[in-house]
Design a protein that fits this description.
Pfam families: ThiF. GO terms for molecular function: ATP binding; metal ion binding; UFM1 activating enzyme activity. Belongs to the ubiquitin-activating E1 family. UBA5 subfamily. The protein has about 450 residues and is α/β, with parallel strands linked by helices. The protein has 2 domains: about 45 residues; about 280 residues, Rossmann fold. The protein is built from 14 helices and 8 strands. An 8-stranded mixed β-sheet has the order 3-2-1-4-5-6-7-8, with helices on both faces. A hairpin with a 5-residue loop joins strand 5 and strand 6. It starts with a helix and ends with a helix.
């Protein structure tokens, strides 16, 4: 080994650059090993007890049940079946200030499987944000995150991949995990969350998801750290990242050339936590089918302003797979005999309306008070409700289109009803000089 290094020093100068690169790689590996040793020492010094795994979520309200408050959402009617979250798989690309907090929230919510992608390392410069700790400095972000997340909730399956998804040699594997990373028989993942900080990675995620027809959420924080946004990307139904590209992407510029040396983007843990909360909240709504999923939601910290926007896919999108998905969606709307400008979740909305209608019909069809011990015949509430509903519909249909509110058909002067009412108000008032005591005495004698 030593002779090989000596021979390399004696080689021409063109090989010396390769030697320098080898030395840099060795130093990097040594730094990683040192960080791992520090992590192991820290783990040994801490008396951490990992709880046993829980096979099924329980609604039992006890201090030892970590899911009792989550299952309360089901008891209160917010969700139909919260335990379904154990069957869901979410991919997070970018385990930085937003991605790490997002991963922690999903793990605490009891997600079934989490697949993490990042190639960066934890640095002391990351400590102004949440999740990571100083003793994890030097570790890869996915390794540090996996260790912490497994300790928080050992029930969650976590896959971690330490590579750059934008490199050609890694794209096929990234595509494979999106296509076969689900929990059920190598099914696709349920949702992809983009928490990256560059346009190149966003474009890579966009192309992969358009190719597979995979739903994903894009998130971002402004360079000055005072505004943020999340955007739902449903291939063919909502705009993809290339439908409405940022100026840098549309111009074909390399964003790396725009960065100035010694200047970095601002970062606030408050903004990071906020965009992570919005992202996870809408992830839960999408996976568990409750509430209204936001297609675009922005926040400005300067005035604490929120804004929601509904966007349509660009029919002239440069991405060919996006155009193909748009054609598939239009054909689907034609089959359902629905207009092309229907909401992206129109099928879910129709199913929900149908379920409500069936539930109402079932409630109306149930006959109450069929039999009783007293032989009393009571009118069914359902028939009276139906009759009342029909009468209401007939009444509303007979109203003029220009009628508003309640109209008075006629008015009567009260004084013309009875001549006795024509007395003046003064006739009901009498004057007296009696004292208060005298008046009270008269009242007692009545």
């Amino acid at each position: 080994m030593l002779m090989s290094y000596v021979n390399q020093f004696l080689m021409p100068s063109n090989n010396k650059s390769a030697l320098r690169q080898t030395n840099r790689n060795l130093r990097a590996e040594i730094d990683v090993l040192k960080a791992q040793v520090m992590q192991m020492k820290s783990d040994l010094s801490e008396s951490r007890t990992v709880r046993p795994k829980i096979d099924q979520m329980s609604t039992e309200v006890v201090d030892s049940n970590p899911y009792s408050r989550l299952m309360a959402l089901q008891r209160m009617g917010v969700v139909t079946n919260y335990a379904l979250i154990r069957e869901k798989t979410v991919v997070i690309v970018g385990i930085g200030g937003v991605g790490s907090v997002t991963a922690e929230m999903l793990v605490r919510c009891g997600i079934g499987r989490l697949i993490l992608f990042d190639y960066d390392k934890v640095e002391l410069a990351n400590m102004n944000r949440l999740f990571f700790q100083p003793h994890q400095s030097g570790l890869s972000k996915v390794a540090a995150a996996t260790s912490t997340l497994n300790f928080i909730n050992p029930d969650v399956q976590i896959e971690a991949y330490n590579y750059n998804i934008t490199l050609v040699e890694n794209f096929d594997h990234f595509l494979n995990r999106l296509k076969y990373g689900g929990l059920k028989d190598e099914s696709p993942v349920d949702l992809v969350l983009s928490c990256v900080d560059n346009f190149e990675a966003r474009m890579t995620i966009n192309k992969a998801c358009n190719l597979l027809g995979q739903v994903w959420y894009e998130s971002g924080v402004s360079e000055d750290a005072v505004s943020c946004h999340i955007q739902l990307m449903y291939p063919g139904r909502t705009p993809c990242f290339e439908c409405l590209p940022p100026l840098i992407v549309a111009s074909g510029l390399d964003e790396k050339t725009l960065k100035r040396e010694g200047v970095c983007a601002a970062s606030l843990p408050t903004t990071m936590a906020l965009v992570s909360s919005l992202l996870v909240q809408n992830t839960l709504k999408y996976l568990l089918k409750f509430g209204e999923v936001s297609t675009y939601l922005g926040y400005g910290a300067a005035k604490d302003s929120f804004y929601r926007v509904t966007l349509k896919a660009n029919p002239d999108c440069a991405d060919s797979w996006c155009s193909q998905r748009q054609n598939e969606w239009r054909n689907r709307l034609l089959q359902l005999n629905l207009p092309f400008d229907s909401p992206w979740d129109i099928e879910e909305l129709l199913k929900a309306d149908e379920a409500k209608h069936e539930k109402l019909q079932e409630a109306l069809s149930k006959s109450k008070h069929d039999e009783n011990d007293f032989g009393i015949e009571l009118e069914s509430e359902s028939s009276s409700r139906t009759e009342s509903t029909c009468n209401t519909k007939n009444y509303l249909s007979n109203l003029n289109s220009d009628s508003v509110g309640v109209k008075t058909l006629y008015s009567v002067n009260d004084r013309k009803l009875d001549p006795s009412l024509q007395k003046t108000e003064d006739s009901f008032v009498s004057q007296t000089n009696d004292s208060l005591e005298a008046l009270m005495a008269k009242m007692k004698n009545l």
